[in-house]
Design goal:
Blueprint lengths: L4 E5 L3 H13 L3 E5 L2 H10 L4 E5 L8 H8 L10 E5 L3 H11 L12 E4 L4 H11 L2
Parallel strand pairs: 1-2, 1-3, 3-4, 4-5
Helix pairs in contact: 2-3
């Protein structure tokens, strides 16, 4: 795992560019994915130190399902995740609880949650809090 790599996952190109620029100006190396499938492939081949993941993405690769896959894959569980969305935090956490398997351990909550549009300074502060 490269402590400078941050995976940015968002289906909107302008949001990927904005977040990547913020991340890069702080000395990190952004990796970008436009959907959950691409994000998981990248995370497995080039493990990032942190993931910034959009909640609302189209199709089966939506952010909630992608988040669930990150938190149930032994290799990816340790990677901190900042969820980013226009969806209210309360709605997101309700969805996570609904997706929790009936048997076994409940799905862990994300390390952080930010509503869109993200404030660059708040995002930088969160990244610095989550990374050693």
């Amino acid at each position: 795992m490269d402590s400078r790599k941050i995976l940015v996952v968002d289906d909107e190109a302008d949001m990927r560019i904005f977040i990547s620029t913020v991340v890069e100006t702080c000395g990190f190396k952004p990796l970008c994915a436009e959907d959950g499938t691409q994000a998981l492939q990248l995370a497995r081949s080039e493990p990032p130190a942190l993931v910034i993941l959009d909640v609302m993405m189209p199709g089966i690769d939506d952010g909630v399902r992608t988040y669930r896959q990150f938190k149930t894959d032994e290799r990816l569980i340790p990677i901190p995740i900042i969820m980013l969305s226009a969806v209210a935090k309360k709605t997101f956490f309700h969805t996570i609880r609904m997706l929790t398997p009936r048997k076994g351990h409940p799905l862990a909550e994300p390390d952080a949650y930010m509503e869109k549009p993200p404030d660059a300074n708040e995002l930088i502060s969160l990244i610095n809090e989550l990374l050693p």
